[in-house]
Amino acid sequence: MARNRQTTEQQLIAATGRVLAQQGFGKLGVNAIAREARVDKVLIYRYFDGLSGLMRAYAEQGDFWPSADELLAGVDQVSGLQPIAQQFTTVMHNYVQALRVRPLTLQILSWEMVERNELTAYLEEVREQQGLALTGALAAIAEHRPEVDVAALASLVSAAINYLAARSQHIKYFNGVDITDDAGWQRLERTIAQLAEALLLSPDSV
Question: pLDDT class for 62, splitting at 50, 70, 90?
Fold first, then answer.
């Protein structure tokens, strides 16, 4: 019985993502989700206490936002041999790659700019929690540059990435940079690396 419930819960969470991708927030309701999952809608109330609980479960369990582990892949936090600028650049590279392979996430980021609802609030909460965990990891490895506000730097750069990645679903160029093309994003990432080196290069290396 427990296994059947877990399977059905995952079906409903996955169906929530599919309804969002296909129809957007306006069509996100218990009937549409139950129909997509091919289960009785009463199970949404039984397992999640209604649509609100299901939306929270989707925000927390769905593949909506990259995890801290995904973003820290390739970052050496142990030996101390990897320069902080390189660590920051690696995290932002991972972030770009993670967003660009999540078209639904990019759609949600676009929707958030014009429409706020219960689901976007839950997704925002999950994103903020994961962002704080990542910022904490970055701050821990940047202790030798206490004069640099790593959290603010990460916020500025990640906000720019969010905006450009979301806009890439609707426009091709932003200030002459092709944000739909790998080459355009490589230009942006090179500039992020230059910014990181300028701000985070160890004083001993100057």
Answer: low
